Amino acid sequence: MATTRAILQVFENYQKARNVFVDSCVELNMEVLQNAGMMQLLKPMLLDYVPVIQQTAALGLCMLANYNEKLAESLVTEGVLEQLVYSLNEAHRLNKKAAACILRAVAKHSPPLSQAVVNCGAIQPLISILAEFDPAVKEVAAGACGQIARHTPQLSQYLVDTGVITPLFLAIQEPELPLRRTVASTFSEIAKHTPELAQAVVDCGLVPFIAPLLSHLDQKLKREVCAVLSSVARHSTELAQVVVASNVFPKIFLLLKDTDPMVRRNAATVIREVCKHTAELAILVLKCGGVAALVDNVSEVSGPERLPGVMALGHIASFSDSLASSVISANALLPLLDSLTNETEDHIKSASAWTLGQIGKHTPVHAKAVAEVGVLPQLLYCFSSKRSSEDLQTKSNRAMSAIINCLDHPPALDCLLQGRYIREPILKYIIAKIAKLVPNDGDFRTKLVNSGSFSKLQQIQMSASSDVKELIENINKEFPTELVHFYNPKHATFIVAPPKNQSQNLKCA
C-alpha cells in the first residue's frame, strides 16, 4: 500500500509536469503548437488553483493571440474570452494583468474581434482595473481599451458611454512613464474618430494637462502627446482653438528638430491639423515662426515623415495670397520640388503637387515664382507618366491648371510647350494662355518662333481637337500669313525659306 509521501510525490510530479508544459509552450513555434491542440490544453489551466500556472497559461494564450488574426479568432470560437472575464474579476492582480493581456492581443487585429471582446462583457472589468494600485496592471487595461477604441467610432463611443474617460484621466496623472504613454495613446485612439468623441476627451480637462508634457524628456511620451493633440485638433475650428489655447505654440516647433523621427512627424501633424481650419489659425502659426520651422522640417527629412509638413505648408498657402507669399519667402519651393521629384511614394508626391498648386494659384506673381524653379515640367511628367497613381495624376493636373491660369510669364509657357508628349487637357491650358499673351507681347511672338514652339503649334494643329485648333488659329492670326504657311506642314513643300525681316514683322504684327 502506497505511503502518504508516495501519494504526495505523485501530486508533486504532476505539478512539475504542468509547469514544464506551460513554460515550454511559451518558447515554441506557435503554429505547430496550435495544430497540436495547445489551446485546448491551456484553456482549462486559466482556472487552475495554482496562480503561477494560471498566469503562464495566459501568457501562452496571449502569444497565440498576438501571432496572427486566425489564432486570435480561434480563442474566440473556443470560448476563452468568457473565462478571461472571470479572471478579470479575481482578486489577484497578476491574474487580472494576464487576462487583460490576452484581451488586448485579441482586440488589436480587427473590428469583429474587438466587438467579440465587448460582447463577452470585458469592458466594465477592464475599466475597474484602471483603478488598481499596480501601475503595470493599469497599463495593460488601458492598452486593451486603446486597441478596442482604435477600430471604429462605435467601439470608441461604447467605451466612453461605459465610463472609461475619467479613470483614464486619473491614470495619466500617475508618475509612471509606461502608464502615461499607454493612456495617452488610448486617448488618441478615442479622439481621432469624431468631433463628439474628441469633445468628450477635451471635457475631462486632458488638453491643458498634457500640453506641458511636450517639453518632457521622454521621447515616447512626446510622441503620444502629439498624437492626442492632433486627434483633437483635426475635427473642427473650435477643437483646434482648444489646442492653441493650451499654449502649444511655439514650443511644438522645437519638436520638429527632435532626434526621434516619430516625434518630428507627430509634431508636424499637430501643426497641420491646427492650421488647416481657418486663415486666422494659419496666420497664428505664421506669426509664431511656424512656416520657417516647417520649411526646415521638409528640407531635412524624407519619406512618410515629410508628408505632414508638406501638407501643412499647403494649408497655410491656400487661404490667401499674402500667406502664400510668406511660404515662398521662407524658401519652401525648392524643398517641395525635391519632394515632388525624388520621393518614391506617390501619395507624398501627390501632397507635394497639391501644395505647389495652392501656392501658385493666387496671382501671376505666385505662379511665376513657382514656374521659375522648374515645377511645371515635373508636374507635367507626373501627370503624363504611366507609373503615376490616379491620385498623383489628378493632383498634378489640378496643380498645373491652377498655376497656368495665373501664369503670364512667357518663358515658362514656351518651355512647357517644348515637352515631348503633352496630354490634351494640359495642352489646352497652355495654348489658351499663350493665346491670351501673344497679341500684346511682340518679344514673346519672336521667342515662340525662334524656340521652335510656333512650329510645334502648327504640328499640333494637324491632329488636335476642334477646341485646340481654334485656339491655335487665334494665335496664328497674330503672325504674318507667309510665316504661318512656312511652318504649317500642309504648305511646307511649297515654301523653301522663311520670309525676310522675320523678327521685325513679328514685333510689329
From TrEMBL:
Pfam families: Arm, HEAT. Gene3D superfamilies: Leucine-rich Repeat Variant (1.25.10.10). It comes from the Eukaryota. The keyword Repeat applies. The keyword Transmembrane helix does not apply. Keywords: Repeat. This is Sperm-associated antigen 6. It comes from Sphagnum troendelagicum.
